[in-house]
Amino acid sequence: MNIWTAIVAMAAIWGVVQVSRSWMDGRQRSKDREEFVPRDQVEELESRIRTLERIVTDDRESLRRKIDDL
Q1: Which one has a higher pLDDT value, 43 or 59?
Q2: Cβ 63 vs Cβ 55: under 8 Å
Q3: Phi and psi of 37, rounded to 5°?
């Protein structure tokens, strides 16, 4: 193995390491983005939950009237 072969081999190894790091960083960033939920979406879901809780805890007659009104 002469000096030029060693230099090419080291450059190839360095390139593989850099590509691997970039790929791993990209996977980590995509995981972080998946876990992030926008604030307006959270508020919308909370509003829907409050509505469902109100319907469930309301007395049966009132609920039956609301359903009949629909």
Answers
A1: 43
A2: yes
A3: -115, 125
Q: What average pLDDT does the structure give for the chain? A: 80
Mean pLDDT of the 16-34 span: 78
Q: How far is CA 5 from CA 1, 10, 30, in A?
A: 6, 9, 38
In eight-state DSSP terms, residue 53 is H
What 3-state class would DSSP assign to 67? Answer: helix
Give the tokens for residue 28: 């980590």
54 close to 63: Cβ distance less than 8 angstroms: no
The token duo for 45 is 């879901």
Residue type at position 12:
A
The Cβ of residue 63 has, within 10 Å, a number of other Cβ atoms equal to 13
Q: What is the CA radius of gyration of the chain?
A: 29
